Hints:
Shape: globular
Low-confidence stretches: 2-34
Order of helices and strands: HEHEEEEEHEHEHEEEHHE
Structural class: alpha/beta
Helix content: 25-40%
Largest sheet: 8 strands, mixed
Number of helices: 7
Strand content: 15-25%
Strand order of the largest sheet: 5-2-1-6-7-11-10-12
Number of strands: 12
Amino acid sequence: MKKLFFTLIGIVLLGCTEIKKEELPSHNKEENTAQKKTFPKLEPNRYNVAFLIMNGTYNTELTAPYDIFQHTQYRKNIKQMNVFTVANTDEPITTFEGMRIIPDYNYLKDSIPEIDILVVPSAEHHLDTDLNDQAMINFVQQVDKTATYMTSHCDGAFVLAKAGVLDNAISTTFPSDIDKMRAMFPDLDIRKEVLFVHDGKYITSAGGAKSFEAALYLCEHLYGAEIAKSLAGGLVIDWKLKDIPHLIHHE
């Protein structure tokens, strides 16, 4: 009788073990293939606007122009904008304020669509260690060859300067960092007392909340004053270009 009892217990335990084995996820590489990366759908006949992001990116310098440019998609009879982010990783980046963002493209390995407008928001280490990232600098230099506009907000100007694309352009940056930028790049013409500078294909801004103004200016330059005013109104911004301290050079 004892033998029969232990035999039955053994069958039950064996059955439970088999069930648990079936419930466990397989570690076979063929059965656990990585999920294929999906890219944003970019509509044809639009400006492709790429935002260069990395750990320590400041929210406002990213979200202000992103909001303005994304809202062009709700305006008719203009060449609207596709907006997307690019980074040197597929992992989420963490902004200075703690927001986590999954980059749309990894410029180290993905096939990047042709970029018409590059936006370089400021990041925590744009005055030091980020400038040693040669892959990032190479990416900026490569985009500059074909882009229609290269833009920066706040200390993003340091990245453009390091890449050498501002060598023949007037520029500006975050007010309290202008002297640092002049010391680091003594041959550049860097202006104070303006909120943004447009020189040729380059638009640099003081950043912060004034990133909205620089983005609205580019929209006015591309689409006219009425569209820019409409975009500003959608974000409850009182937009009057003449009231914004700025410099336009070599249009």
